[in-house]
Structure formats: structure tokens, C-alpha cells
Design brief:
- Keywords: Glycosidase, Hydrolase.
- By secondary structure, the protein is mainly beta.
- 1% of the residues lie in helices and 46% in strands.
- Strands 23, 26, 27, 29, 30, 31, 32, 33 and 37 form a nine-stranded mixed beta sheet that branches. The protein has a seven-stranded antiparallel beta sheet with strand order 24-25-38-28-34-35-36, with no helix packed on it.
- Strand 30 and strand 31 form a beta hairpin.
- It is globular.
- The mean pLDDT is 97.
């Protein structure tokens, strides 16, 4: 039996993986969305399901009341030590955080700040079972610290709460000919060596490096162990190494795919006669390969569809900032009821914290949802969006005369406010079925049905990513500023169907 890459065809950015018994767990960057730190589970490294999130809210909470799309949780590391799961991550504006739990499904501790500082990113711990020592390595964000292309190492308290020294640069990428943007280190012990698996060369065009030393603080020797070569997988790098119970080695990494974000590939890995890891097909990513030697599993993927039972949304959804009470209302039936949140930023979805999002699918697909606008407030609106540096949405809006219109709007990346993508049309029942057909290159065609079958609306919209984040699908309800409750909107039968 074979599998085909990518094994996770959506924006599961900066993946890291760990095995505990017969189970594999994966986490990924979540940036400014809440809940954050998604947790995925697999028994065969190919079929993954989303089992929850480790971070309910970003802290400090006041910093994330409004969207900070490219900030927050960067490049986490997932480990299992002392019968607990541990996640370390860097917030580029605050420092290195850590949480832990007895089970991957929680409960997880609140974030603990291990080291405060600007530009401290991509941390990874190591508990050395041979010596009882603990270590941590991290990279640097030049935008905050003025430093890049270096990896800094620390001794760490074995309880993971603090670092025991000021740190030392253990790998300086400026001293390696041709290397730049060295970051994302993952730290391991193997065969008597300290190993750091770290990418370089930037997300679009980079490569995966391996570093080894007999002592944690170096000196390290380096080797490129995975690069694009003659494949169509650009920039294959940054991920985690995992070993199966039978002793097979595998490496999960990402590929940057524009608006689709960073999709996840699975590569075979072996150790060469000179002791270095060989990833993929002699250092080139594979498209198709024999599955890992693990018990066969049924086909699975992270959930996308949702009927919103009892008004609750599934694990696949996150808000664009820390949520507030009253945004979503639980009730006895199916369907998501969102309050029309009053805001001065109704003209720009990128500024709204109350957009409920999930990842854009990495292959052609059709997205559909039923929408009913209950809000009587003039200007109240709700819709289905494709959200990135540029955005477009289709939905319903209440007019000053009380009528409801089907509207379709967009904004370019440089625009400060949205404008119409098509002429408004009456939606006499205050209901519509909305549809987005996502084609090759994340080109999106918007359609609507107000009782006469689907009709296309406006021109094709080319989805765009944020700086580090892939484009998102979003549901929202809002209203202009003013006193009192502005009503609500209901979303039902959300579906994503492969095209």
C-alpha cells in the first residue's frame, strides 16, 4: 500500500510530531487565532484527525482582543517526557512559552513564560535521558531582535520552567557558505550525538539541514539532507523526526503553497553509513511512497463539515482573536447562531476578532452554507468569506427600509475598506444558500441561491495568504456601531465537497 503527499493538504504550518506508544501526535503554528495549538492524532502517520487544541486563549489576553494575524503562536515543539506532553513555542513579541498536560486531550496548563524577550522564536527542548540534563535551543526573528540566521542554546531546568544560563550561539548560519534564514530547530539525541534538524533558505525556496555534535554547545557540523532538486516541491523543510515501534524513521515537513499555506508532507528517513540522516529519495521529497510499517487504518482527515448541533461549532473552527461571551449562542436545535457584533470596522473583515475561521482546502472544492439574517438593524450583515491580505465575502445585509439584500464585496490587499464586487440583489425571505467554488491556484468563484437556483456573482477572486498564514474560510455577523443588541444570523449545513 502506498500514500501520496501531502498527507495534510491544508495550512498546518510548522508541524512537529511525537510518538507515544502506538499513537502519533502533531501540533502546528496557530498564530493569532483562538483556540490555538491544534492537536492531531494518527496511528499510521498518513491519516490524521483533529482531536482538539492545547491553547484555549492567547496570553496576555488583552494583547489578543483584536486580530494579530501574523503574531502569537509561532513554530511549536511537541514532546513527551516524565509521563506528560509538553509544547514550547515562541511569541516573537513576548518570548518563549510552555504548557504541559498528562494527556494530549488535556487538561493543559496555562501558558508559562520560560524566557522573556523580543524575537525569541522556534524553541525546542530536550531532556537527555543519559545524563539527566535538560536543554533548549531557539532561533531569532530579525524583525524584533535584529538577529537572524543563528541558533542559541541553553541549559534548562529539568521541570521546564526556566533556563539556567544566558545562552550561547551554538550554530551561526553566517559562517556556513550559502546558508541564510536558519530557523525552526528541532533537538534530538541519537547514536551518541546531539542532533539539530533545522531549515534554512526561507519558506519559499529553502532546504532542510542537519547538525550534529558530541556536546550540546558544539561545535556542530552540518549537512543538507532534504531539498527540492528536480521535484515540484519547493522549499521542503521544517518539521519533525519520529520513529515507529518497528524502528522505521520518518520526517514530517511543510511546503509553502501560497494562499493554501503550508501543507504537510511525510518523507521516509534512514541513517547512512556515515551516520547522517537521509530524507526522502536520497535527499529529494517523494510524491508517492510505501506506507509506514504500521497497522492499516481507515482513511481519515481533519473534519471540515459542520451542522453546528446545539449551536456549537466543531474543533476545526477558530476565532481571529480571543473570543468574547455572546458571539455564538447555544440553543436546542442545529445551526450556528452568531450575534451581529457592533463594530466601527464593518468595512474591513481583516480587523474583526469575531470571524469564525477554518483552513482553506488545498485541492479544488466547493464550500456551501445556508444563511438566515435575523437582525433587524439597518446595516446588519452576515456572510461567508475568503480571508487573507485581500478578502472577499458574499452574504446578506439589512437595508434602511428593512429589506434584505444579497451582497458580494471584496478588498484588495492595499485597500483600507471593502467595495462591491457585484450589484446587490433582493433576498426577499432573508435567506440564501451561499457557495464558493475554489479552483486551481485558489481562484474563487462566488455563487448564491435565493430560491431560483445558484447564480454566479462578480468576478473570480484570487485568494491571498497573510504574511505567514494561508487564506482562511470565515463566517461572520456584524452591525454598525450603536446602542443595544443588533440581532443575529444563523448558519446551517456547512459543507466542503471536493471538486
Amino acid at each position: 500500500m502506498t500514500y501520496r503527499n501531502p498527507v495534510l493538504n491544508a495550512d498546518w504550518s510548522d508541524p512537529d510530531v511525537v510518538r507515544v506508544g502506538d499513537d502519533f501526535y502533531l501540533t502546528a503554528s496557530s498564530f493569532g487565532r483562538a483556540p490555538g495549538l491544534p492537536l492531531l492524532h494518527s496511528r499510521d502517520l498518513v491519516n490524521w484527525t483533529l482531536i482538539g487544541h492545547a491553547l484555549e486563549r492567547l496570553e496576555p489576553a488583552a494583547e489578543f482582543r483584536t486580530p494579530r494575524h501574523d503574531c502569537g503562536v509561532w513554530a511549536p515543539s511537541l514532546r513527551h517526557h516524565d509521563d506528560r506532553f509538553w509544547i514550547f513555542w515562541g511569541d516573537p513579541d513576548q518570548g518563549i512559552f510552555q504548557i504541559n498536560a498528562p494527556d494530549a486531550r488535556g487538561p493543559w496548563t496555562r501558558p508559562h513564560l520560560v524566557k522573556e524577550g523580543k524575537g525569541l522564536i522556534d524553541p525546542c527542548p530536550l531532556w537527555d535521558d543519559e545524563t539527566g540534563e535538560a536543554y533548549l535551543v531557539h532561533a531569532w526573528a530579525k524583525s524584533r531582535s535584529g538577529i537572524k540566521n543563528r541558533l542559541t542554546g541553553h541549559r534548562m531546568h529539568p521541570d521546564g520552567t526556566s533556563l539556567l544560563d544566558e545562552g550561547k550561539v551554538i550554530v551561526d548560519g553566517d559562517r556556513i557558505p550559502g546558508w541564510f534564514t536558519l530557523e525552526g530547530p528541532k533537538l534530538y539525541r541519537h547514536d551518541g550525538w546531539f542532533w539539530i534538524l533545522a531549515p534554512a533558505g526561507s519558506v519559499e525556496t529553502g532546504w532542510q539541514g542537519a547538525f550534529r555534535s558530541r556536546g550540546f554547545f558544539g561545535p556542530y557540523e552540518e549537512k543538507t539532507v532534504l531539498e527540492q532538486k528536480d521535484t515540484d516541491v519547493n522549499g521542503p523543510h521544517q518539521g519533525g523526526w519520529v520513529r515507529t515501534p518497528s524502528g522505521e524513521d520518518w520526517f514530517l515537513h511543510f511546503q509553502q503553497r501560497g494562499a493554501y499555506g503550508r501543507v504537510v508532507h511525510l518523507q521516509p528517513m534512514r541513517w547512512s553509513s556515515d551516520g547522517w540522516p537521509v530524507i526522502g529519495a536520497d535527499g529529494a521529497p517523494v510524491a508517492v511512497h510505501d506506507k509506514p510499517d504500521l497497522p492499516p487504518q481507515p482513511a481519515a482527515a481533519p473534519a471540515t463539515d459542520d451542522d453546528f448541533p446545539g449551536g456549537r461549532f466543531g474543533r476545526q473552527w477558530s476565532w481571529t482573536a480571543n473570543p468574547q461571551d455572546g458571539w455564538a449562542t447555544q440553543h436546542s436545535g442545529d445551526g450556528l447562531r452568531l450575534s451581529c457584533v457592533r463594530t466601527a470596522d464593518a468595512h474591513d473583515l481583516r480587523k474583526l476578532p469575531n470571524v469564525l475561521t477554518q483552513r482553506l482546502p488545498g485541492t479544488p472544492a466547493a464550500v456551501e452554507v445556508d444563511l438566515t439574517l435575523h437582525g433587524e438593524e439597518p446595516g446588519a450583515r452576515a456572510g461567508l468569506a475568503v480571508l487573507g491580505d485581500a478578502f472577499s465575502w458574499i452574504g446578506l445585509q439589512r437595508g434602511a427600509d428593512g429589506t434584505v439584500h444579497l451582497v458580494h464585496r471584496f478588498a484588495e490587499a492595499v485597500a483600507e475598506r471593502e467595495r462591491d464586487a457585484d450589484h446587490p440583489r433582493l433576498a426577499p425571505e432573508g435567506r440564501a444558500r451561499l457557495r464558493i467554488e475554489i479552483g486551481a491556484g485558489a481562484r474563487c468563484r462566488f455563487l448564491y441561491d435565493v430560491g431560483e437556483g445558484f447564480r454566479p456573482s462578480g468576478p473570480v477572486f484570487a485568494a491571498t495568504p497573510w504574511r505567514w498564514v494561508g487564506a482562511l474560510l470565515g463566517l461572520f455577523a456584524l452591525a454598525p456601531t450603536g446602542p443595544g443588541h443588533a440581532g443575529a444570523a444563523s448558519f446551517e449545513t456547512f459543507r466542503i465537497t471536493p471538486s
